[in-house]
Amino acid sequence: MIRVLMCGACGRMGRLMSAGIMAAPDMEIVSAVDIIGNGHDVGVLAGGEPTGLPVKADLLSSIHTDKPDVLVDFTNPQSVMKNLRIVLPYSVPCVVGTTGFTEPELKEVGELATQYQTAVLYAPNFALGAVLMMDFAKTAARYFPHVEIIERHHDQKLDAPSGTALATLDLIAKERDEFVQGAANEQEKIAGARGGCFQGARVHSVRLPGYVASQEVVFGATGQLLTIRHDAMSRDCFLPGLLLAIRKISQLKGLVVGLEKII
């Protein structure tokens, strides 16, 4: 059995992914950590029967007492770096679904993983369909350099653009030369109306209640449009990718970015 420590156990993703982990035949949650919900039963939080496993507030003590094989982090951009700095010196492999990393933070994570000879798998999106969407967009960018991304998420998401959009932009940038899209003399009547700009490509973030996660990558050329879209209708779609990451993390070394690296 793979012994899992769940960070962010009281959040929406933490509760749902905990339920899926507990239902998997080859893994178990041995510890759950959250700065809120201290003492709450993990099974009840996940929508099931009580397990007798309470949520703890102290990550370090959980590592010492519960001896996990892997840490899963679904917290928030403010907490994830603190958690990784605590756990990596103990050589506990980490699967991270929290987005919002800066480039310096990812660099630090890579250095810590190398220093302590352990693995960190950071996946901006665990949905297999989203991984395929990004791969298809990378291929299309070789032939359609004009591209804009529209990503839509629930209104409680803290980072914009999403980690998936940033990863997609990075993949596209590797396939095309940087250039400025649109009319040379275009004017924004409202600041930001044309979205964010990444090496000339535009990205637009929509935040509304009702959405889970959706992304369109729209390519334009003379007389044609190509749209590649992925919609997450519920958070259940992230579970198969997460379970795959938990099973594969022991085979990895250093910082690995993207679920596509292991499928």
Structure notes:
This protein folds into 2 domains: 2-122 and 236-262, Rossmann fold (3-Layer(aba) Sandwich); 128-232, Dihydrodipicolinate Reductase, domain 2. With 263 residues, the protein is of the alpha/beta class. The protein is built from 8 helices and 12 strands. It has a 7-stranded parallel beta sheet, with helices on both faces.
Task: Put the structure in a nutshell.
32% of the residues lie in helices and 25% in strands. By secondary structure, the protein is α/β, with parallel strands linked by helices. The strands form 2 sheets. Strands 3-2-1-4-5-6-12 form a 7-stranded parallel sheet, with helices on both faces. Strands 8-9-7-10-11 form a 5-stranded mixed sheet, covered by helices on one side.
Structural descriptors:
2 domains, 7-stranded parallel beta sheet, about 260 residues, alpha/beta, Dihydrodipicolinate Reductase, domain 2, Rossmann fold, 8 helices
How is this fold's topology laid out?
Blueprint: E1 2-7, H1 12-23, E2 27-33, H2 42-45, E3 55-56, H3 59-66, E4 70-73, H4 77-87, E5 94-96, H5 103-115, E6 119-122, H6 128-141, E7 146-153, H7 163-173, E8 196-198, E9 201-207, E10 213-221, E11 224-232, H8 239-248, E12 254-257
Parallel strand pairs: 1-2, 1-4, 2-3, 4-5, 5-6, 6-12, 7-9
Antiparallel strand pairs: 7-10, 8-9, 10-11
Helix pairs in contact: 6-7
